[in-house]
Design a protein that fits this description.
Chain B: Belongs to the ABC-2 integral membrane protein family. The complex is a heterodimer. By secondary structure, chain A is of the alpha/beta class. Helix content of chain A is 34%, strand content 29%. Chain A has helices at residues 44-51, 75-79, 95-105, 110-123, 139-151, 169-186, 197-201, 221-228, 266-275, 291-300, and strands spanning 2-11, 21-29, 33-38, 59-64, 67-68, 80-83, 157-161, 189-194, 206-211, 214-220, 232-238, 253-256, 259-264, 281-288. The two termini of chain A are 34 Å apart. By secondary structure, chain B is mainly α. Chain B has one domain (17-254). Chain B contains ten helices and no strands. Chain B has helices spanning 17-29, 32-58, 62-95, 98-103, 109-139, 149-170, 174-190, 203-209, 213-226, 232-254. The chains are: A alpha/beta, B mainly alpha. The A-B interface holds A 1-2, 5, 7, 14, 49, 52-56, 61, 63, 65-67, 74-82, 84, 86-93, 97, 101-102, 104-108, 133, 153, 155-156 and B 2-9, 11-15, 19-20, 23-24, 26-27, 30-31, 33-34, 93, 96-98, 100-107, 257-260.
């Protein structure tokens, strides 16, 4: 079943001559983990604010389960848990209160809302924060609380604006694990935006890449890899300061001191590896193209 | 290719209006956690000082003028505690994303406005009680409190709160909202017989005062706190109900739930 059907959506902010997004068309199937990838200012947050009906589109249509959003303002509150990039709406509340009130206002009975609060505190590993005010938490803790609040009431769709920003690697892993679990256990459709392709690759099933307000491409990870071609990613580590010794015609990029990246066609792999001098090369890693490569391919094309 | 309308996944039923009102009222009451110092200063101490200063000038002018000083400063306290605080609160709700939070919950939106008004009215009550008790002691005015005070106090607060919500829903910067709110507080107090008896005001001020909810609030409060109750109270209550409905409706329409 189609959850979101976005058709030819355009947004001009008042007084602006440049569109924040232009002719965006995409469809999101039920139960998908859908990543919206793009650099800063690509129009990602604008698009999802339109998708949660908090921002009016200049033109185009957005349907949720086949129902036009602008004619059905109660659809998003009934079906979508939304986590904005930043907000301080719950600053006066303790974590306990924020979870309970959100679950209760989403229609759970008092008892169910209390149970939901306990479940969320445990699931998101924030039991020790339960009596603290949201405003007193660190940036990372606040983000986890907001994720838990968005997930309160187990709505069928979750829309998350940069869910792992401000988080340390352990918490980032926890967030992706929980989101995967929600998707697997309840079939929750998860739509998230990020500018971090490496992070997105850990969880995403389908991806849309936005750049400068336009949708460059949309598809599954394997489809996009096929579009990019069967490129291989060769990472080489040389002693810092020494230039890489590679066959002619290749253009390596130094990603950090001593570490070089070369994109190769499949047929180039054998000759390049044979030509490498093992004396000067400290480490060799060969991968298929990553989401980051796909992203860079489209954005820099 | 677009899809025809399909059946929606089963979710929870939207909570009843009473549940929505109660929950949001409790959420809004938590504003006490940050605002109590401000409310204490602007809602009690500032009007008390104003009352003390005015009482020095009005002491010899008799109980009639003193009744205006007392009730006028109670209205002054209500203006600070409801209009000023609500204008700041609604503006901060817009800026901090609280409207996004409530906008994605299955609630009837005017309920949010009612809950804010109720919460700030309750938060204003302690200051109001302090003002009434201390004011009557300082000015040596005996209180004759009518049970109608239970109806009149909320009716005095709601229109002022509605003006605050309108300011907060339209103005972009807190400094601008605060400046407009302060100017309005003084205008509403000065235009019309709020702090000063009508006989001592220019006739233009008395005329303009008829358009101000503060005038009717002052008149109604004076009757239910100090007596005697006259036929004017029915007019005051009627006008305050009208102001309450109109200003609350305007406020809930003006709040930008959806960014343009």
């Amino acid at each position: 079943m189609l959850v979101y059907d976005v058709q030819d959506v355009v947004k001009y902010y008042p007084g602006q001559t440049k569109a924040a997004n232009e002719h965006i068309t995409l469809q999101i199937q039920e139960g998908t983990i859908f990543g919206i990838l793009g650099d800063n200012g690509a129009g990602k947050s604008t698009l999802i604010r339109q998708m949660v009906n908090l921002l009016q589109s200049t033109s185009g249509s957005i349907k949720l389960y086949g129902h036009e959003l602008k004619n059905n303002p109660q659809l998003v509150p009934q079906l979508v848990g939304y986590m904005p990039q930043r907000y301080e709406a719950l600053n006066n509340l303790t974590v306990d209160e924020a979870l309970y009130f959100t679950a209760h206002l989403r229609g759970m009975t008092r008892n169910d809302a209390r149970q939901e609060r306990e479940r969320l505190l445990k699931l998101w590993q924030i039991e020790d924060l339960r009596h603290k005010y949201s405003s007193r938490l660190s940036g990372g803790q606040q983000r986890i609380v907001r994720l838990a609040v968005a997930a309160a009431g187990r709505l069928p769709v979750l829309i998350l604006d940069e869910p792992t920003n401000d988080l340390d690697p352990l918490r980032r892993k926890m967030v992706w694990d929980i989101l995967r679990q929600l998707n697997a256990d309840y079939g929750t459709t998860i739509i998230f935006i990020t500018h971090d392709a490496i992070e997105a690759e850990k969880i995403v099933q389908r991806i849309a890449i936005l750049h400068d307000g336009r949708l460059l491409v949309e598809g599954s990870l394997s489809e996009l890899k096929q579009i990019v071609g069967k490129k291989m990613r060769l990472e080489l580590t040389f002693t810092p300061g020494l230039p890489p010794t590679l066959p002619e015609g290749l253009t390596p990029h130094e990603v950090m001191p001593g570490r070089w990246l070369v994109m190769l066609d499949w047929e180039q792999v054998g000759p390049v590896l044979s030509a490498l001098s093992r004396e000067h090369c400290d480490d060799v890693r060969l991968y298929t193209a990553t989401l980051e490569d796909i992203y860079l391919h489209y954005v820099t094309a | 290719m677009s899809q025809p309308e399909s059946s929606l996944p089963r979710t929870y039923k939207r909570p009843s209006l009473l549940t929505q009102l109660f929950d949001i009222f409790l959420i809004e009451l938590t504003n006490w956690r940050w605002s109590w110092r401000g409310m204490l200063i602007t809602g009690t101490i500032a009007p008390l000082f104003s009352l003390l200063a005015l009482s020095i000038f009005a002491r010899d002018s008799g109980p009639y003028s003193l009744s205006y000083v007392l009730v006028g400063n109670i209205v002054f306290s209500l203006l600070f505690n409801t209009m000023d605080n609500i204008s700041s609160h609604v503006l901060f709700m817009r800026r901090l994303g609280m409207l996004d939070y409530f906008g994605t919950l299955p609630i009837w939106r005017p309920i949010l406005i009612f809950a804010i008004l109720l919460a700030f009215l309750l938060l204003a009550l302690p200051s109001l009680v302090v003002m009434i008790v201390l004011g009557s002691l300082i000015l040596n005015l005996p209180l004759h409190i009518s049970p109608l005070v239970v109806l009149v106090v909320p009716l005095c607060a709601v229109p002022l709160a509605g003006i605050g919500a309108i300011i907060g829903s339209r103005i972009r910067l807190p400094q601008e909202a605060s400046a407009i709110s302060i100017v309005l507080i003084f205008l509403l107090s000065a235009l019309g017989p709020v702090v000063i008896p009508p006989e001592r005001l220019p006739s233009l001020f008395n005329l303009l005062g008829r358009l101000s909810p503060a005038t009717y609030a002052s008149s109604a409060l004076r009757q239910v706190l100090l007596g005697p109750i006259t036929g004017q109270l029915a007019i005051d209550i009627g006008v305050l109900i009208g102001f309450s409905l109109i200003l609350t409706l305007i406020a809930s329409r003006l709040i930008a739930w959806k960014e343009q």
